[in-house]
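subagent[fold] <- orchestrator: predict structure for attached chain, return tokens only, no commentary.
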Amino acid sequence: MTEERPTPRFGLSRRERILDELRRTGAVRVADLARDFGVAELTIRRDITMLADRGLLTRVHGGAVLRSTLDTTVARAALPGPQFRIGMVVPSLSYYWPQVVVGARSAGAEAGVQLVLRGASYAAQDQRRQIAALLESGTVHGLIVAPETQGADGHALLSWLDTLPVPVVLVERRTPPALTLTRMQTVATDHAFGGALAAGHLAALGHRRVGILTSPQSPTSAGLRQGWSRAVAELGLTVSVDRDTALDRMEGSAQAEVVSALLAEIRETGATALLVHSDPQALLLQQHLQDAGWRLPDDLSLIAYDDEVAEHGSPPLTALRPPKQHVGRRAVELIRDRLREGPNRPAERVEVAPALHVRASTAPPR
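subagent[fold] -> orchestrator:
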């Protein structure tokens, strides 16, 4: 009777469990692992040999122990390739996310982590397909993902991610509290704090009637609005303009009609400043304002949120910048530490603050 060779995915999961047991007890026996995992002892010996060849443990008679400092069979500096391979799935490879990827790759190079990048869309079904493809390759030790989190599809995707045999870190996403998911870690920009920063900046300049324009497609908008609403109330500001509109997805007459109505509302309500998410919307609005004869910041102060291209406006736009590269870096560090220390390491949910870059588009009201 011959032993059936396990699939790469299950082999990877089994080797992770061997390392977890080693971290917990300091030593493992082949016979015990074979019995607990329900596989042949030969399979466990192969796993231990593979892990020893990568310098992750030290083989001893009948089992293995945590890598000894006296073990010179494999020099760490001479180990072939990275220590871990991490799959990364983001919903866009063109806007916002490239900087997150840059930060992740930089941290990976320093930490012995190789990233395997896949682009998806904002649809939960497409995201799950890309994540499943990485898992089925049997070559990744963990996942860094930015999945859909809202609605039935988003909740189902998150619940599935929480059951995977590899650690998962969400980037720029949070898990809904009602799902009570305990295994996943998160690294996200505190967009609510960004909204408060914008309100505070305008209040310090003397603005009292302000407005907000956000993108309905962006997961950022909800947090941004939450912080903005709380801050303007505490600062005693009046929100006289409030729109959730995708100007950058409109064309021709439709865009002109919406902008015309928006400008009329700004005039009628006496708003003197506007927070706009995202950069493309802010730049489009700036162009329409100038075409209509408005002067920035004399007639209206503008703050953009994202700071991808805001500085290229005329005048350059004051903007709030999420620390995208740092988010990517922290995600890699979290998953590296979880892989090294095992599942008993407490899950972390990290929030990092955006920065306000003041430029020529904001000034005290006339």
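orchestrator: received. Logging for downstream: The two ends are 88 Å apart (CA to CA). Confidence is low (pLDDT under 50) at residues 1-8.
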